[in-house]
Amino acid sequence: MGHGQQSFDKKYYRRFFDKYTKSEFDKYVNWAYGWIKFLDRYVDIKKGQGRTLLELGSSLGYFSRVFKDRGFDVTGSDISNYIVKKAGSIQKDIKFIKLDIESKLNNSKKYDFIVAFEVLEHLKDPENALKNIKKMLNKNGVLIFSTPYPTKIALADPTHINVHKPSWWRSIGKKAGFIKMQFIYATFIPFLYRISKYLSIGFPFKSDIPYVNSTVFLIFKK
Length: 222
Prior knowledge:
By secondary structure, this protein is of the alpha/beta class. Helix content is about 30%, strand content about 25%. The chain contains 7 helices and 8 strands, in the order ααβαβαββαβααβββ. The chain has an 8-stranded mixed β-sheet. Helix 2 (about 20-40) packs across helix 3 and helix 5 (about 125-135) crosses helix 7 (about 165-175).
């Protein structure tokens, strides 16, 4: 049993959301704001007008919300039909779809950007997912994703079945056909984002300190 099965998803998302209220959602939008603000230093995502973006593993779509507010034409997606319905009820101005990025694609639409934050480490076959993602990108399209560095904390999560160093991700990115690839370590101040989005602040290094949000951003260009 895993993601995509309603009984599992109800239990899994209970870790993050109690009643799926607007206040719960806004807290995570604050968190997402800091992550995207950090990425502004490395990739051109400040202005979204005339540009399309797909978020994979979007959950309630807090990253989608930030990109939507920047003017992107956003589609949120998740393998969980349960969370897709929850997201659509909270954000009626964003389209959310059920999508399994590891399976054969039925979606012929292409995007300028595809993003996936803390998603690929949950996949059984991330190499196949990367191949599918590349097919869904427009010419010169960009994939932006984050995934934990293999620290004790990251490896302790049983849903993290593919946690690897950046060199591994770059190697399978090359196999998938991506041309330009870079990675950036990032560590974020914990908890303060609950007060304000402006307190969601990241620094370009990795950390294994408990409760600190530490990840690796990877930017793959088609």
